Amino acid sequence: MIFSNDICITKLVSILIFSISIFFIACSNNVNATAEEYKAVGRILDFESYSLKKADKITIHLGDNLIEDYFIKTYLEEFTPSHIREHMLTGEPVKVFYYVLDDKNIVNHIEDYEE
Question: 88-92, 97-101, 111-115: which range is least confident on average?
């Protein structure tokens, strides 16, 4: 009888550990790892920044009267607001690497574009 209770408790603990593991794996799914990455090249028309170190949104003219907004969720070391402003003033194009989440373009990376 005692042996039967130990097996039952062991099964319950195993099921509980398995369930918690699946929960954490599902919750920690990285959207960037599964989302398809796109590239766009264009000239920066405008940007929004709520701090001196990080831009929050850029607006890019892609050509043929196509203008798109790109949202920046993380700090981009190479593309500070002052560097973005420089691109706006000079008209030098940028290459944006992004993914789409909830119908918004989310920036992974931005780099200078060499024509």
Answer: 111-115
